[in-house]
Design a protein that fits this description.
By secondary structure, the protein is an alpha/beta fold. The protein has four domains: 123 residues, Glucose Oxidase, domain 1; 111 residues, PtsI, HPr-binding domain (Enzyme I, Chain A, domain 2), CATH 1.10.274.10; 130 residues, Alpha-Beta Barrel (TIM Barrel), CATH 3.20.20.60; 149 residues, Phosphoenolpyruvate-binding domains (TIM Barrel, Alpha-Beta Barrel), CATH 3.20.20.60. The chain contains 23 helices and 16 strands. Helix 1 packs antiparallel against helix 3 and helix 20 crosses helix 21. The radius of gyration is 25 Å and the shape is globular. About 3% of the residues have low confidence.
């Protein structure tokens, strides 16, 4: 292509995982799938040589991560993200990674690269059985580490984000969290990837660093050439390759408006989250990683509405000790004090790598997961409950049981909690004897008997992500049925209202901790249904607060009464879309 040839403008849509707009030159960091050659029928001495090569590659991988860790320790912003490196270092010590690979080399007499690839394939099959999108997203960490070892086995050079000298838009097939954690020096304006989703560690880090990012673009690495001008709109998930000067000017103005909009939202940070007629709605945050706490505090979160604890059980060969539980929870509780922290007990499905003691199941989404697993494995459950209780002596802690489907589960879980309290009291270990207990409403059976559940607990929290999937019988990550994932579906709205009505009638706090809570158009409906606690990611808090402060509770209830008369999701969506401009105009879109 000659220098004077005009390049074609390309528009693409992906998953906006971190809001914001960026315009810059593309830096291509491809890192596509690694397909090593297979060498079979090697003799015994060659097999031992392959094992030594494998061990050397493991050591090289550890040394590389330790160098990255040291670099990050020297950077003020990088220090906050060192836990990601530590997690990857832990994966490199995993027995399944090491022992299974060595075993395959010896028994199948194949080269180290192919043996490692087989171990990875086996692990990915386990992860693909998981219904929970969030847990499924953790598989990317495993894949990133395996690929690092593979690259070292193949003798290839690792391209590092830290080597980028000019402000750029990074374009890659995939990015590891270790890559994103290095984006602290300001040279990465935004990034785009072929794969990935909103729940990955990479996405979480991009939000904490406030770097505009879009993932799941599928073919972006084939559409972009190094040096191309690229526009990244992380808010809408829009990418424009080789835009005209006039379009660039439009987006540069939008960048300024977005900055102004962000600054204007910060004016809401310390204002109460209440409607024009005085109804209070508590806005809290969802977290898994410690890195997510500071953005929540900066955006005025009134506590943690969902603290996912699965990270403690992942990428390790043994179970977390009570002391590890206490340390992890206490850190978050102290950081958020005096605001409350709602800790969700272990929610894990049928996946052997997440937790080796979980059974292999044909359909783990409907099987032994969450509270069901905990009630069967009471030793594991009580270790966590004791850790949560001990952390409650350091601040305001609440405990929440996931995937409740009936009253018996709540009563059995409460009995184990009380048993743990009695033990700690006898041991002289402090805890909050009045710790509040909550239930997550994620399956239709729980919603139907919400009036009974609210008699057993201090609060309920609706997990809309799972509730939608179970109620509508769809998997939103399955492209064949994803179009049916409709938060505006009349059945979904009626289920949520049923739970909210039961809780309000009983005087029990009711919240939502799914993704619906973080979008103003859904938050409007949740407000009208009488939900008084919304939990979301940090960067949604001020947007939702602005919505809440712009409308009366009476008007929100009136809107909800109207939409309950509609027969389809499209009708509801159209009506809400018609009302939003008068209630909530986002100036930066104009």
């Amino acid at each position: 292509m000659t220098s004077d040839t005009k390049k074609q403008v390309v528009l693409m849509k992906g998953i906006g995982v971190s809001s914001g707009i960026a315009v810059g030159k593309a830096y291509l960091l491809e890192r596509g799938a690694i397909e090593p050659a297979q060498y079979c029928s090697i003799d015994r001495s060659e097999a031992e040589n392959e094992i030594e090569r494998f061990k050397k590659a493991l050591k090289e991988s550890r040394d590389q991560l330790l160098r990255i860790k040291k670099m990050m320790e020297e950077d003020k912003r990088g220090k906050e993200h060192i836990r990601i490196i530590d997690a990857h270092l832990m994966i490199l010590k995993d027995n399944m990674l090491i022992n299974d690979t060595i075993k395959i080399i010896r028994e199948e007499k194949i080269n180290a690269e192919w043996a490692l690839k087989n171990v990875l394939k086996s692990l990915m099959e386990y992860f693909n059985k998981i219904d929970d999108e969030y847990l499924k997203g953790r598989s990317s960490d495993i894949e990133h580490i395996f690929n690092r070892v593979l690259i070292n086995l193949l003798g290839r050079k690792h391209e590092s984000i830290s080597e980028i000298k000019e402000p750029s838009i990074v374009v890659a097939h995939d990015l590891a969290p270790t890559d994103t954690a290095q984006m602290v020096n300001g040279t990465v304006l935004g990034f785009l990837t072929d794969v990935g989703g909103i729940t990955s560690h990479t996405a979480i880090l991009s939000r904490s660093l406030e770097i505009p990012a879009i993932m799941g673009l599928e073919t972006i690495t084939r559409k972009v050439e190094a040096g191309d001008t690229v526009i990244v709109d992380g808010t809408t998930g829009t990418v424009i390759i080789n835009p005209s000067e006039s379009v660039i000017d439009v987006y540069k103005k939008r960048i300024e408006r977005f900055k102004d909009y962000g600054k204007a939202l910060l004016d809401y940070r310390d204002l109460p989250s209440e409607t024009t007629d005085g109804r209070r709605v508590k806005l809290m945050g969802n977290i898994e990683m410690i890195e997510e706490i500071n953005p929540l505090i900066d955006h005025g979160a009134e506590g943690i509405g969902l603290y996912r604890t699965e990270f403690l059980y992942m990428n390790r060969k043994d179970l977390p000790t009570e002391e590890e539980h206490v340390k992890a929870y206490r850190h978050v509780v102290k950081k958020m004090s005096p605001n409350p922290v709602i800790i969700r007990t272990l929610d894990v499905g049928g996946d052997k790598f997440v937790l080796r003691v979980v059974a292999d199941e044909t359909n783990p989404a409907m099987g032994l997961r969450a509270i069901r697993f905990c009630l069967k494995n009471t030793d594991i459950f009580k270790t966590q409950l004791r850790g949560i209780l001990r952390a409650s002596s350091s601040g305001k802690v609440k405990v929440m049981f996931p995937m409740i489907s009936g009253i018996d589960e709540i009563r059995r879980a409460r009995a184990l909690l009380e048993e743990s309290m009695a033990e700690l009291k006898a041991e002289g270990k402090p805890f909050d004897p009045n710790i509040q207990i909550g239930a997550m409403i994620e399956v239709p059976s729980a919603a139907i008997i919400a009036d009974l559940i609210v008699r057993e607990v201090d609060f309920v929290s609706i997990g809309t992500n799972d509730l939608l999937q179970y109620s509508l019988a769809i998997d939103r990550v399955n492209e064949h049925v994803a179009y049916l994932y409709e938060p505006f579906h009349p059945a979904v709205l009626r289920i949520i209202k049923t739970v909210a009505d039961a809780a309000n009638l009983a005087g029990v706090s009711v919240g939502v901790c799914g993704e619906m809570a973080g979008e103003p158009e859904y938050a409007l409906i949740l407000l009208g249904f009488g939900i008084n606690n919304l939990s979301m990611n940090a960067f949604s808090i001020l947007r939702v607060k602005r919505l809440i402060r712009s409308i009366s509770f009476a008007e929100a209830r009136k809107i909800c009464k109207t939409i309950l008369g509609f027969a389809t999701a499209k009708e509801v969506e159209a009506y809400i879309a018609s009302r939003m401009p008068e209630l909530y105009k986002e100036e930066f879109w104009s």
